[in-house]
Automatic annotation (TrEMBL):
Keywords: Membrane, Transmembrane, Transmembrane helix. PANTHER family: INTEGRAL MEMBRANE PROTEIN-RELATED (PTHR33048:SF47), PTH11-LIKE INTEGRAL MEMBRANE PROTEIN (AFU_ORTHOLOGUE AFUA_5G11245) (PTHR33048). This is Rhodopsin domain-containing protein. Signal peptide: none annotated. Belongs to the SAT4 family. GO terms for cellular component: membrane. Pfam families: Fung_rhodopsin. It is found in: Membrane. Residues 43-181 form the Rhodopsin domain.
């Protein structure tokens, strides 16, 4: 029995599959939303500076989030460069391994970014609502958000044992990995 996945696929279908590439659409979406987020963060700082409002902790937290978002987006673009968006049969093993490495680090960056967005919003609420009765729930939600972010980060970071089995498909048969799709 031949293990080549393209055997049995008619040449005309194979040619159609080879032309399909969602990579350019992916890069277009990444660039669009990253640009919008970057503009929003820049406008936030311009408004604060022009109005004479001091830069607060929430602004620093959003900068950390934006930096991690840029890193996550760069990882997504590198995934496309290494074959994401194409049918797997047309992506060689070294490219697949590199794309999965970028996926791994991109997800970590995204998780950190998402946690810092929450912290930024909650820090802004804490500044706006000066009554102690409203601040206590904000601190509780912030603690839950930070704990959840740390738990998610470590859960994903060690989703496979050994860790590199996440991207090294040759190690996956012997590795123990959490089924992240459930």
């Amino acid at each position: 029995m031949d293990s080549n996945p393209v055997n049995g696929i008619p040449p005309s279908v194979l040619a159609d599959l080879a032309r399909e590439d969602q990579g350019p659409k992916t890069i277009g979406l990444i660039a669009t939303f990253l640009a919008l987020a970057f503009i929003a963060v820049c406008l936030r700082f311009v408004a604060r500076i022009r109005l004479g409002i001091p830069i607060g902790w929430e602004d620093y937290f959003i900068l950390v989030s934006m930096t991690c978002s840029i890193l996550a987006s760069a990882c997504q673009i590198m995934q496309v460069h290494h074959g994401f968006g194409k049918h797997q049969v047309f992506v060689d093993l070294p490219s697949t391994i590199l794309a999965l490495k970028y996926l791994y680090f991109g997800i970590l960056c995204y998780g950190i970014s998402f946690t810092f967005i929450k912290i930024s919003i909650l820090t802004q609420y804490e500044r706006i609502f000066s009554v102690k009765a409203t601040r206590i729930p904000i601190y509780i939600v912030m603690g839950i958000s930070v704990a959840g972010g740390i738990a998610a980060l470590f859960t994903f970071m060690f989703a496979c044992v050994p860790v590199d089995a996440f991207w090294n498909v040759l190690k996956q048969p012997e590795a123990r990995c959490i089924d992240l799709e459930k």
